[in-house]
Amino acid sequence: MDVLQALIVICNFVAVPALAYGSQLALGALGVTLVFGVLRFSNFAHGDTMAFGTMVAILATWWLQSLGIGIHPLPTALIALPFSIAVTAVLLLATDRFVYRFYRAQHSPPVIFVAASIGVMLLFHGLVRLIIGPWDQNFADGERFILSAREFKRATGLDEGLAIKTSQGITVLAAIAIVAWLYWFLNRTRTGKAMRAFSDNQELALLSGIKPERVVAICWIIAAGLATVAGVLYGLDKSFKPFTYFQLLLPIFAAAIVGGLGNPLGAIAGGYLVAFSEIAVTYAFKKVFRYLLPEFLEPSGLAQLLSTDYKLAVSFTILVITLLAKPTGLFGEARQ
Amino acid sequence: MKLLLTTISALVVAASAQAADQVKIGVIFGFTGPIETLTPAMAAGAELAAQEVSDSGMLLGGATVAAVRGDSTCIDSAAATSAAENLITVDKVNAIVGADCSGVTGAILQSVAIPNGVVMISPSATSPGLSTVEDNGLFFRTAPSDARQGQVLSDVIMERGIESVAVTYTNNDYGKGLADSFESAYTAAGGTVTASVAHEDGKGDYSAEIASLDAAGGDALVVAGYVDQGGQGIIRASLDSGSFDIFVLPDGMHGDSLTDAFGSEIDGSFGTLPGTDSPGASMLADVAGAAEVDASGPFVKESYDAAALLLLAMQAANSSASADLMNKVMDVANAPGEQIFPGELAKGLELLAAGAEIDYVGGSAVELIGPGESAGNYAIKEIQNGEFVTVEFR
Q1: Which residue does chain B place closest to A168, by CA atoms?
Q2: pTM confidence score
């Protein structure tokens, strides 16, 4: 029985939150890795693109709520998604047209693109703060729990509860669906194959008649979709605040780099790796040990490796270790 | 020799008559800086008391009162001390109402008030450190020390039979000071604090903090944070993961946004908020309303009381000099004597002039204890059916 209790504690405080957070990071890292694969630069504006997409979704959600439209028990923000993806895609395409296309025509080195994307990041960040303000916004509605801790305790008669939030369930399902679709798109469709060809060798792709501007446009549209979905899911699960999204950039890049930039499967694995490390390293295992160990071995402290304040430092450490030990990432192949 | 004595006493009389014409009090608050939204109402409260005394024409045989403002900035000690220096040397104020934030209050006290021998009464500096500071008897405050709130919280929790709690506090001087004072009071009373974990405000997600607090265990969670910041996130995360159901809420956690967000989910949680059932508060609201001052804001009542105490102490000492009035502040603030409420300052002045004793109650039920700080009156509130309900005062 005690082993079961310990297992439930771990599920409740580590596995379920990390699975949801990891899915959100994986979707974000997929966007970063896709832009890197096709356009060959690290898009620092991705975190704030997520913030922008989420902001549009929040505004649309409020509008829908004022009309009384909803899909109870699911959150209203889900109906607002297609619209917000479209708006974000328009923003990214416009940014590409007015910023990145210029540098592409010049054949600028990647570092110039990165610098430009930092400018775009600041612009998006300011835009979001200007429109919706720097404060916390909570836009989750609908049923809050699939399984609440109290119900779980009552149903099983155990001391420990297990809670699964609706947003966590939606996040994991959405991540699976999107990853499956992306996999199919990149490997089975003509456009997907063209994108991969463009990513592998730009000159050869041009020679075989692939239109570069079309590939770039599709890449931005998909990036907008991934960013908006990741942002909305994160916002539903936690809360929306522009600065938090700005800070998400670090774990997202850590995830993308651990998996190998440009590798979609790596981005997903990286997302879960970063999320599980962040949560497991800062979790206090005292309760788990209390259930598992005999009384005389019970830890007197919290059995916590790092204070929760150091969560961001965990992604940073993962990033540094990867860059030192295996710069191409776990799944990346060496590039010339 | 006799002539000399007569001349001197005549000069003294002339000098005191001169001083009686106008009394100046300095009002040092952070009119710029992080609490600039609160200070205009606080200063208006202090000036309201000054005006009331001035209009009565009974202070020291008909002196008028002028309030001179200075900017403490709340955080910049250098700017605050130079503003205070200016008030004392250039404007020649007799005493000071202020300062507001604990840091600058300590700085002004040490480098300006003590060297110049000027009395300060702060309405809002709550740091426990100011209780033990060497002040030569010049410093008073109409606000309670945070140590007092820790004690009250501990008492309330113990009375409810909760003997082990986890504590989380917002990572700044307020949160840390309150958490420390609570922890020492609670452990002294026999309770156990299973863990004391800081949280940063403004994060999107507090599930990690709750995970460690849950691992530590405890029958309730003390949330020494802010209602519109991390404090609310902590409660959300705790409810989501099903760890704590009962929350203990110090003053920073009281607000409608809390009950709006959680409703009856947090029924049975309770906490403390500075407040009083004394009729003084509503009487001050009436007086202030007539002068179009909003007395409901934080520390406005305390500001009114600080200025009133200064002027009443002057009357009791029959002198506007700080060196004289400093010995009378405690006398006019505490029993015995007739109770004086806001709007009754003229009555108080009259009684003091006649040599009677008064017990100034004011808007915040002033009762000065120990080194001259408010005993602190707290309303104990409980959440019942999704609403804050006041259950008792202490």
Answers
A1: B240
A2: 0.73
B214 to A308: CB separation less than 8 angstroms, yes or no: no
Count CB atoms within 10 A of the CB of residue A2.
Answer: 11
The residues in A 149-188 lying below 8 A from B, measured between CB atoms, are 149-150, 152-153, 161-163, 165
> Computed from CA positions of residues B183, B185, B188, B190, in that sequence, does the dihedral angle turn out positive or negative?
negative
Let me know: does B332 contact B349? Beta carbons within 8 Å.
Answer: no
The amino acid at A333: E
Any B CB within 8 A of A288 CB: yes
User: Is residue A327 reached through a cis peptide bond, with omega within 30 degrees of 0 on the bond before it?
Assistant: no
Residue pLDDT tens, chain A, 336 long? 688 888 998 999 999 999 999 999 999 999 999 999 999 899 999 999 999 999 999 999 999 999 988 888 899 999 999 999 999 999 999 999 999 999 999 999 999 999 999 999 999 999 999 999 887 888 888 888 888 888 888 888 888 889 999 999 999 999 999 999 999 999 999 999 999 999 888 888 889 889 989 999 999 999 999 999 999 999 998 889 888 899 899 999 999 999 888 888 899 999 999 999 999 988 888 888 888 888 777 777 778 888 887 888 898 899 999 989 888 888 866 443
Structural domains in chain B plus CATH codes: 21-144+278-372 (3.40.50.2300), 147-276+376-393 (3.40.50.2300)
> Å from A249 to nearest chain B CA?
14
Note whether B198 contacts A238, CB cutoff 8 Å: no
Q: Please, which pLDDT band fits residue B15 given cuts at 50, 70 and 90?
A: very low
**B109/B173 Cα distance (integer angstroms):** 19
Contact A283 B211 (CB under 8 A): yes
Task: Report the alpha-carbon distance of residue B340 to residue A80 in Å, rounded.
Answer: 61
Inter-residue contact A196 to A45 (CB < 8 Å): no
Residue A300's Cβ-side half-sphere holds a number of Cα atoms within 13 Å equal to 0
SS3 A164: strand
Domains identified in chain A and CATH numbers: 2-325 (1.10.3470)
CA distances (Å), B38 to each of B74, B246, B299, B380, in order?
11, 32, 8, 24
From the list A238, A286, A302, the residue facing B204 with the nearest CB is A238
Residues of chain B contacting A54 with CB distance shorter than 8 Å: none
Packed helices A46-67 and A212-237: angle between N→C axes, nearest 10 degrees:
60
CA–CA min distance A96, chain B (Å): 30
Query: What's the mean pLDDT when you consider all of chain B?
Result: 87
Q: Which residues of A17-34 are buried (b: 16+ CB within 10 A; e: fewer)?
A: bbbbbbbbbbbbbbbbbb
How far is the CA of B330 from the CAs of A95, A183, B140, B311, B352, in angstroms?
69, 78, 9, 13, 14
Distance from first CA to last CA of chain A, Å, rounded?
A: 55
CA–CA separation, B120 and B27 (whole Å): 10
Which residue of chain B is at minimal alpha-carbon distance from A137? B204
Chain A residues touching residue B216 (CB < 8 angstroms): 284, 286, 302
